[in-house]
Amino acid sequence: MRDKIIFILYFGSVVSITYIHNIGFLLAGLGVVALISQKSLPRIAKKAAIAIAFFNFIVTISYCTLSVIKGNFSIHYIALINLRVFLLTSLTFLVAGRINPFKALGLSRSILYLLTLAYSQVLTMQRLFDEFRQARRSRSIARLSMRDMYRHGASTGAFLLRKSINDATEISQAMRSRGFFND
Amino acid sequence: MHIPDGFIAPKMYIPAYAAAAGFWAYGIKRVKEKLDEEAIPYLAVLTALAFVLMMVAIPLPGGTTVHAAGIALLAILFGVWTSFISISMVLLLQSVMFGEGGITSLPINALAMGLIGSAVAYYVFRALQGIPKKIALFAAGWFSINVAAFIAALALGAQPAIAHSTDGSPLFFPFGFHITLPAVMVPHMLIGIGEGVLTVLVYQFVAKQKQKGEA
Amino acid sequence: MIKVEELSHIYNGSEHVLRDLSFEIHRGEKVVLLGANGSGKTTLLKILNGLVFPIKGRCYYQHQRITKSSLKEKAFNRKFRKEVVLLFQNPEAMIFNPTVYDEIAFGPRQLGANGIDKTVRHWAETLGLSRYLDRPPFELSSGEKQKVCLASLLTLEPEVLLMDEPTSKLDPRSTGWLVDFLQDLEVTTLVTTHNLTLASELGERTMVLSENHELIYDGEIDALLEDREKLMEANLLHTHRHKHGELEHGHFHTHDWE
After folding, report:
1. What CATH number labels C2-89+160-253?
2. Residues on chain C touching A131 (C-beta within 8 angstroms)
């Protein structure tokens, strides 16, 4: 229950923050996040900064260039957008580290099971995918041709596709065997 | 596309959530009807599949690579609703578990890539039955990416019009359609070619392996 | 040939997979790396193949340090990838070409070597793959796939052959064949296995990774086989109760064909 309540509070805060266009309030919000995160503050701030760096950098630079040309540059906008995006992303990382997302989002037994299973499957597939990529690197003496790159990507995709169909059958058999569908 | 939180106005993402929620409920119902007991394991595994398909690199001329989307493959092989739900789950896991992409841009991405991208891929492929399969698959891959990108560009480009302060300066994403459409669409027309080629190749690999298995 | 100094590696921020390893492998040596599942064998091979980079310590190939940046140098990368090759435990990860022939020819084609056709046919013949040359590799059994992968590495005429559990996908007959084959091969080899019996057949020198991810033995296999405590520590040996009719007793055991 705790996780669900925190998640609802989090979602409510995200929505509220997107209605705030006052820099002072956003700064205050950042202060609250800093206060709650305490020791993990540097880690959260760093993660958030990295996560938003690319998109915000491009938007900020293009905005500056275009608005200066057009003569409607607003420093308030630069501060507002970067501050808000940073606040929202920090808040997300703060909450993500403190709740069990499965408990928070698991509205029913089926959804909980689906999320957990999907997540563990993602980790397994990711590991396999990395293995394929490492094998490609290990075997690449020269830079691969585009043709070989496509071929490798396609055979990786096809392998994972075939594997997922086999796994799905196997998992449902295991679920049946353990009585998941009995009630 | 990973748009962080804070660029989309609530005027857009709240209705988008409402719309997406309706489609999620309907989509889950459709998947359950089709797969019955196997719905959960299938969705879980296909979510993982969609997740890694998005990690496959598409090489472009000049040595750069971009990530594939895999929408057309999922939609053609497993149907629009299964594809939509799996891609939505990927977006959810990415934003909640991996901190990629925001929770406010989630419904827009889910609708653009998951629902409309899948539907376009599926119906383009269906409409092109009769011509060589390669071309139909390529077109499905190309259109799925480009239609999804088009919708994302529209969503971003609408921000300054729907949310601005009294002096006219933007409050969320700052650029209108005249910038987002070319900036998003031009690269995607090229990326779509790579996605199309990959769709053809993976499909052929799977079909070959299937024939072998059934023989 | 290969030198490793004070090497440690960590996964997920805190979990050790390798702890403070130091060793050297000389040209022509045939080394077996023994360890229970999860002891860090695969990670060590991937580090030696320049795929994973250790958090601490150094790794050298022919006196040149293997790092992310040294492998970005084109000349060293080319030399290293040609001379140090890795047979992955899962052969599927390595296979992506349309035919067995193309798979085996993939390496030499990158080198732009002459006489590729002859080399490919030679190794296909040696490994018993000649009749599969025109078939897609994914159609083969996993044992055959592994042979295709091995052939595709040997066509490069490597200096160092790293093999990750090469017998895990083979039946006893093919395993016997592989042991003979490797003994005749004039290449420096490092083979991982958790199969104790096999270790004595595969190499003279044996290294053992403990479940604590430390190198607890490096020497002759015969002396290791006498050292029960060490084998128990590495979880390569266990005891359990046995029933022979009315008589019940416990003794040491290896379970090799799991």
Report:
1. 3.40.50.300
2. 88, 90, 93
